[in-house]
Amino acid sequence: MVGPNGAGKTNLLEAVHVAVQGFSPRTRSDVELIRFGEAGAKLALRGTRNTAPIEIEVVLRRHDGKRAILNGARLRAAEQLRREVATLTFTPDRLAVVKAGPAVRRAYFDRVLERLVPARARLPTEYAAAVGQRNAALRRVAAGLSSRDALGPWTARVAQLGAELVETRREAIRLLTQRFALHGDGLGLEGARLVYEAEPPTAEALEGRLETDLARGTTGAGPHLDDVRIFGGRHELRSFGSQGEQRLAVLALLLAEAELITERHKMPPLLLLDDVLSEFDAGRRRALARLLTRGGQTLITATARELLPAEPDQVLRVSPGAVEAG
Q1: Which of 36, 45, 50, 274 is the most exposed place for a label (fewest CB within 10 A)?
Q2: Domain map of the chain by residue range?
Q3: What is the distance, to the nearest Å, from the Cα of residue 144 to the centroid of all Cα atoms in its chain?
Q4: pLDDT of 137-187, one tens digit each?
Q5: C-alpha to C-alpha distance for 228 and 8, rounded to whole angstroms
Q6: What is the pTM of this model?
Q7: pLDDT by residue (tens digit) across 30-77?
Q8: How many CB atoms neighbour CB 193 within 10 A?
Q9: Does residue 172 sit in helix, strand or coil?
């Protein structure tokens, strides 16, 4: 997709994301996706998945729930589309994976975990719920509304689920690490690596810091406080990486995950790349082209056709209020 800044390229890419994933990468408020003055919106896509046809329809209403239909069958929830059409997205906001604090990286890698290890997809949510229950119990005990004995089951639950989460994160990051390094090197980010230094929580360790947790009203140890550090060479990119290096790191992560999804599910994901070419010189655009032409479909935005990393199968020219093939 090509067109000047402000023409609507990002809006078009967002519409595709809503249609194939059931939600926007920008906002969780569906009302924001509906044009001002309109009662609703409808998105419809047709394509093929392997060799089988696929048709998707997503309907949004201001005063009603979202509706998604896949091949003529209504889905219980639009977000179920996530399991039907694997999709990975790059937007400039995704640089927060490198630039922001540990909470953003934890959330990102837990979403990767869900896609790569589907059997453990609910583990981060279950662990967070257990920590929330233990925190509530800590506050009740501190207020004199409950006995310390009430903490025992939640401490054991946090320790059990926390240990499982640490181990599953290690597995997901191990799967990513080599491919992340290879794709980083291919894009010119030498020495790209991921570092996850975490110890599984134990009931004994949590009991040992009980007085501190009671005073603060929160569980002060466990994988909800961990970080995944992202390096380029010897430098941690959050603190010492340039904007260009941070962009390369996020893109290398996306390509690494895409490769793993293809291997595990025998089907490449759809890639939606918005403004990914900013700050890329011609050499890096060629390197990206080599990586993107290995299979699957990619929708990419640029301000001009000559900036696209490879000769596209189709060009959509976007102008305010119009999209034309060409």
Answers
A1: 36
A2: 94-259
A3: 41
A4: 999 999 999 999 999 999 999 999 999 999 999 999 999 999 999 999 999
A5: 34
A6: 0.90
A7: 999 999 999 999 999 999 988 899 999 999 999 888 999 999 999 999
A8: 14
A9: helix
Beta strands (DSSP E) in 216-297 are: 229-232, 235-236, 270-273
CA distances from 51 to 47, 54, 80 (A): 9, 9, 21
Lookup result for tokens 């320790």 = 159
Q: What angle do CA 111, 267, 124 make, to 5 degrees?
A: 15
Cα–Cα distance list, 310 to 152, 159, 188, 260, 289 (Å): 59, 50, 18, 23, 5
Q: In whole angstroms, how large is the CA radius of gyration of the chain?
A: 22
Q: Are strands 316-319 and 192-195 parallel, antiparallel or unpaired?
A: unpaired
- DSSP per-residue string spanning 99-156: HS-HHHHHHHHHHHHHHH-GGGTTHHHHHHHHHHHHHHHHHHHHTTSS-GGGHHHHHH
What distance in Å separates the CA atoms of residue 250 and residue 248, rounded to the nearest whole number? 6
Rounded Cα distance, 119 and 207, in Å: 30
Residue 186, Cβ density class (10 Å: 0-12 exposed, 13-18 middle, ≥19 buried) = middle
Q: Which residues pair with 318 in a beta bridge?
A: 323
Q: DSSP assignment, residue 80?
A: G
d(CA 29, CA 58): 15
Question: And the tokens for 247?
Answer: 């962009």
- Phi, psi (rounded to 5 degrees) for 77: -145, 140
CATH class of 94-259: mainly alpha
